[in-house]
Fold these 3 entries.
Entry 1:
Amino acid sequence: MKKNESYVKFVDLYSKYGVLLILVIVFLICSFSSPAFLQWGNILSTLNQAAITMVLTCGMTMLLISGHADLSAGSIVALTSIVCALTMKMTGSPVLAIGASILAGVVCGLLNGIGVCILKISFFIITLATTMILRGMAYILTDGAPIYGMGKIMNLGQGSLLGIPNLIWIAVVVIIVTFIILNKTVYGRYLYAIGGSPDAAVASGINVRKDIIVAFVIMGVIASVSGIMLAGRTNGGYPSAAEGYEFDAIIAAVLGGTSFNGGVGGVIGSIFGAIIIALINNGMNLVGISAYYQDIVKGIIIVAAVFIDLKTRSLVMKH
């Protein structure tokens, strides 16, 4: 009995702090792999490059907690970056460009939410469909060519404050807001309840349909923020941009302890997961490992993370 209790405690401890252990191990391996890794400029550059993924991971974490995911997130990032660039080119107004981009993100999220909650289509199918639709729209709007010239919005993507890149500051703000929503609001508690047991959530009086639609809309808004960040960093909108970003966000969230089955997770763990992915990519770049191998590593990581999630859940339920 004592052995079982100790084992359950270990599993519970790992589920809470395992991502920190992985982060430390990855950091140490990267440190020994290349002397350039520990340079402040490299660390800052790594975090700056990961900032957009961190932001996207916040929205994905909320959806995963509710028992859903958005495979169209990367396409929303690309489309909203193009909307931002086109509006900026036509009006010259950063406010209008940012507003138009966020509005486009709201519409995209709303379409996904309606598809899941009103039309009763699996989130996997509807977001896979909107992935292709939105990516096609991105190519149509641009005729397949990049839209350059972001004006003052470039300051968001390329400027800095107190020596820290603006993209990192934006990511910090989004992380804080997401943490507050999930941990300090009634809506956040509802998301955990919905992900844990939709039927029980309905029985307790939670408007599951509305709350899931709102979660998809929030995902759309967060993806549009990522799109604005990307447009500012690259000084334009690119129809081929952000491919695979949704999978980076999912990997980061699951690696950070957010369950694919819903009801479990948190944004802080997810951000640690995003940082781990960024460190692995940076470490492999520094030692000259091809980007193709990086994709293989990401695939192995997500399989391992899901396996560990399933095993820890089953062990806790058994004991």
Note: The first helix runs from residue 2 to 33.
Entry 2:
Amino acid sequence: MLPEKFKERMKEMLSDDYDSFETALGEPSIRAVRVNTTKIPVDGFLNKTELFLSSISYAEEGFIPESCEGIGRSAEHHAGMFYVQDPGAMATVKALDIKEGWRVLDACAAPGGKASQLASAVGDSGLLLANEYVPKRAKIIVSNFERLGIKNALITSLDTARLAEMFSSYFDLVLCDAPCSGEGMFRKYDEAISEWSEENVILCAERQKEILKNLSGLVKDGGYLLYSTCTYSKEENEEVITAFLRKNPEFSLCSVNEKLVAATSDGLDGLTEARRFYPHLTKGEGQFIALLKKDENCSNLPTILYKENVKSPSKEEIAVFRKFISDNILGGLDGRIIKWGESLALLSHDLPLPPYSVFMPGVMLGEVKKGNFFPHHQLFSAFGARFKRQENLTRDDYRTEKYLRGEEIDATLPDNGWCAVLYEGVPLGGGKISSGKVKNHYPKGLRNN
């Protein structure tokens, strides 16, 4: 049951379109999949999948399946071929043409859908800082990034005010998918309805203004600040943007990509470049998008305002790891190796590691114990395609389901040693071959029961 006050507000906002809007809210929510181009190109995925898919006009890698039943248990999902994502949420990153090599920040990144979308867009030569203030939610990003094989990112859990103290004019793009009252999620989550109130709308708007103020200084001259919410209220959308532009004249509201314009409605109160995503107009949940560009002539230099504090591996650890690489991986690994807890991690990016609240510094490689190297699951997921030994499972292979259950499987390779386990050519996990068997190293928490 929709709150009466919410209905009154939306009737005033939508006028003659309100009945269509309310009818749409009574229908099931829409789930979509976004092909994870970090691991597989779109055409490669379409050639492999058995899902019946409808394309999404504004996202070439986005599709709506005929059914999503059991999709999270599929080998394709386990292998990180796709990310399940609402079409409206997918639209935000499509507001502009993101270039490979950009430095980007997702300031409110959990659960990681838009962040992983950004990571794929900037490519291995780019950098993604995925930040999430709530530590439990930051851990969810870590899990998703491991599955998706993200190599060019680090994950932090910091307040946006602290981010403002650490960076100045550093990022080509800052995404602020701000915490909001969640009106756009009403048909997806019942609690979004039960927790809604006008008072919460106002509280969210004040918090959003503070977050935008904190993030404005992180955008480089000529760079972009992309603001989005999953709510409809003008207080959290157009009024936040209007207030921000009034106080920050170096920013201006600009148009989004034409395909996204065609799938959305104009923003209200004269902000026609801003976009509103409505479920009665386009398949998906509610979303607001505003793309802001910073003046190119502000004379600000990109600056990192902190000192890195990291440990280096011991000579023994480096020697053991190098031998593992030589024995198992073609071409080695590019980047900087650091000690992270008891493990080694690979930083493929050039960003000095923040001194605190880092949840994932890069790719977790593994741990040296008693002169041997034990690889982490993320190493297999990110670099499995470069392992010398590969056990390639297929859809019709009886071993696929056994592997996903954590069971030992038959090996096809004659020699013993560490191997990557692939599914239809895409890195899934790892194992160790011994006497004709692959000892399963797929993490227990990821296995199908």
Note: The radius of gyration is 23 Å.
Entry 3:
Amino acid sequence: MGRIRFAVHPLFLLFGIYYAVTGRVFLFLVSTLVALMHECGHAFAAARFGYRLDKVVLMPYGALISGDIEGIGLKDEIAVALAGPLVNAATAVFFVALWWFFPETYPYTDVAAYSSAAIAAVNLIPAYPLDGGRILYCAVAQKKGEKFAGKLARGMGLAFGALLSALFVYGCFFVSVNFTVLFFSAFLFAGALGGKDRAYLRIRADYSREMKKGLEVKRIAVRTDCTIKKMLTFLRRGKYAEFIVYDENGEYVGEVSEEEFAKILEKASLYAPIGEYFL
């Protein structure tokens, strides 16, 4: 999978300060750990399909993971989106089973279990940037196109964010002040209004728009036994890839442009060596 980069959103720091002031640092740390497990589920699922998600941004009530390659299909993206909640659900089930056999462990693991179950459930809400919103996006995109799906998914994120903001205001006057609701609404607003860096990215071979301004070419030398899956890890958004292929003796075999590589992907096994396509 390579190196994973980490970044911290300012709202995450504010969220941590709030929990420290209210004496719930342990809950904050456990929730952060559970969120990282969630994102690792996405990353491992993406790697299984041959793609790389390698940047984690810590956000209030979770994290967002992104990659700098394009190309995952809509059906595969649904599987990647589901992987995070499934990891959390499996963790919650594990702790419940642990309590069944060893009840004395409950006081030490209840926070992790409930946090895992909560993150799994919340992430299935169909609001961008939650996983449920990504699943909604992919499902709709297959029928109505990505432009419409993007507007719908982000609109749902804004709608849920507005709803939670309204609940926060209502609570301030009629129930109690609950900053948790406010932070979560801010998370939804930040994700729905955020840039492309906070989404799973897909491969495309059409760089005509970028080429109007000039596009940097990235040349990568590989051997004929280099797998298609490994070659995928060299692709970068905003750079045009050209692969120079050599045999085991270091002799030049040929070159593969990014357009040609995209065509190979349509029929190739991820574990097939690139040399098979020079026979």
Note: The longest helix spans residues 146-174.
